[in-house]
Amino acid sequence: MGKAAIDGEDEALLAIGLAGGGVAARRRLLETHASAQAALAAGARNWRSHGLDDDQVLAVQDPDVELHARCRDWLSAPEHQILGWHDPDYPALLRRIPSAPLLLFVAGDPACLWHPSVAVVGSRSPSVGGRDNAGDFAHALATSGLAVTSGLAAGIDTAAHAGALAAGGRTVAVLGTGPDVPYPRANAALHARIKAAGAVVSEHPPGTGARRENFPSRNRIIAGLALGTLVVEAAERSGALITARMASEYGRDVFAVPGSIHNPMARGCHRLIRDGAGLVESAEEVIAAIGPLAADLAEALRGRLADPNSGPASEGLGASLPLQAGWQPADPDYQRLWRALGHDPTGMDRLISRTRLTAAELSSMLLAMELEGRVCVEHGRYSRKR
Amino acid sequence: MGKAAIDGEDEALLAIGLAGGGVAARRRLLETHASAQAALAAGARNWRSHGLDDDQVLAVQDPDVELHARCRDWLSAPEHQILGWHDPDYPALLRRIPSAPLLLFVAGDPACLWHPSVAVVGSRSPSVGGRDNAGDFAHALATSGLAVTSGLAAGIDTAAHAGALAAGGRTVAVLGTGPDVPYPRANAALHARIKAAGAVVSEHPPGTGARRENFPSRNRIIAGLALGTLVVEAAERSGALITARMASEYGRDVFAVPGSIHNPMARGCHRLIRDGAGLVESAEEVIAAIGPLAADLAEALRGRLADPNSGPASEGLGASLPLQAGWQPADPDYQRLWRALGHDPTGMDRLISRTRLTAAELSSMLLAMELEGRVCVEHGRYSRKR
What we know:
The structure is a homodimer.
Chain A: H1 8-17, H2 24-31, H3 36-41, H4 44-49, H5 54-61, H6 65-75, E1 80-84, H7 92-95, E2 103-108, E3 117-121, H8 128-143, E4 147-150, H9 156-166, E5 171-174, H10 188-197, E6 199-202, H11 214-225, E7 228-231, H12 239-249, E8 253-256, H13 267-274, E9 278-279, H14 283-306, H15 332-340, E10 346-347, H16 348-355, H17 359-371, E11 375-378, E12 381-384
Parallel strand pairs in A: 3-4, 3-7, 4-5, 5-6, 7-8, 8-9
Antiparallel strand pairs in A: 1-2, 2-6, 10-12, 11-12
Helix pairs in contact in A: 8-9, 8-14, 9-10, 11-12, 14-17
């Protein structure tokens, strides 16, 4: 309950971000104002015009004092920050998923959330071999320069975070609790190490305890942050399969490690492989598969860092991406899509009819072009950037 | 060199079958005469008109006396027989492959070659677990009523044959040696048991020893006899992968058992799964997948047994298949194919352009219809039967 100095923008973002209810209206509100402060200052009539309902208007006007004080306290630490939907630092890949959170609480280096990453997930009670495999894959992925994203759970998640840290690499833990609540408790030390060497992220405000219903929704953030999801071991019914299904829905790669048919913890992986996940025997196969998308993400980051309107550069990644008016993609499908895109926002249906490509094809092509900074998306409609 | 009593038809078939060289001309020769004896009696001019070359004509006229005597000796045993290309007992599924042998030497029950079967193949030096899996899968397949086809090799093949025998089921061994030459020698007792409880089959005449070059071609017969091929364990370079590739080319199902990423003998299986083979954890999955094709094969056998022109029924499988002139398949793709098929033999290219189906789709549909007795194929051209 201390009085910590946080800036007016964060205060405004907390007021909007903690108002509860659906996110769509609050996204629109943040998108159409220059800042959260401007959105807050616009007043109830303006909020309602963006779709905020009575409960949300009331919550913005009359915030939960105790909760806000807790958030302010937490934010007073230098390595703690919040990222709002309108923030240019909001992670590009996560922004792309339909149910992206409006607000992220980040402890550690928020630049990690932009770093190309692979989600390594699986059973909370793996076999000894599965635990070793998780550590080995994470170690190799981190050594190759990729971040390892996972959920800080017991078992595979723990081994994955630890493997990335042992390699001296980056790792991101996505929590179903508040960013300051390690769960399970046994992972308190690991939580602290991840905060110091990577990032801990949650959509839940500080102090939120472990609630069963928050864990499945945590999985969408893991899948959404990562270029691809690797399931190391999973029983036939397992949260890791939910993460994998979400990754697949978001157009990301899904990988699974096979195992003995006598290992019940391999069943979930075998099911994923049957359903189309890539069977991988080594981290090199994962790296080779996600390489192209990772390069695109690096390009997007470069483009953003070169944009004077973007926030402070968290990491120096070098030259800007030259955006030529007469740019022509080399691939014929991309050419078709580029011609089909105008400066007027265009919906997916129309793009399908214009290009005769499938929704799945278009979806991954648009993501790549968005990451390259060629295309922008608003309210589900796509247009050329600039 | 004894003087054994074999009939004139077998003598004639041996003369043509052992003439060497390409098989296409000799297939045509057998197809256009009522019997091998009639084909032989037609004379050199007629043989040449079917495409037999000078060497073949000479070999038919002046056969290798010693080799023929050895074959006659072998044929004098009651459980030994030969099956020629023109024989209605020639296995329906094997007949379908492009490089089907002209002549088969069969020791045991030739009806086994018509029995719906699964090929169970793999490494000659499997892990202990792989050997157990091969035996377990074969036992379960045999228990369900399927025959198990394999190659009598050490390792997985041996475990597969033994598993089927232990279940009291049928098993077929396809040899790269003569039908009377167990290879490896250590499998002499197994060879004898298979002959007694199933069938041993070879395209090579009795007395043919183990020659390196005959083993890969043996694999095509394994793949060709079976409804599907299951690879239990295989290194990255392995004969079992050749069998699997052939099965896939013949439009048959390919299955592979996954394993630990640390087991080098699982690598070949993982590669097959990546290339599209079905990942299977149990025999039930194999049975479910091949069920429809197995039912078709049973129909074809029923139809053949009801045909008074077919050879002696080896097994009583019941009622004949009613062939209605106005028959219409239920499936729209099959309807399209049925309309595209006339009573004039039609090549694959034309069927593709008429139906706009792919060669792979047509190939499996035509096989099913051939097995149902709806379609016949001659020289690679298809027509409605009757």
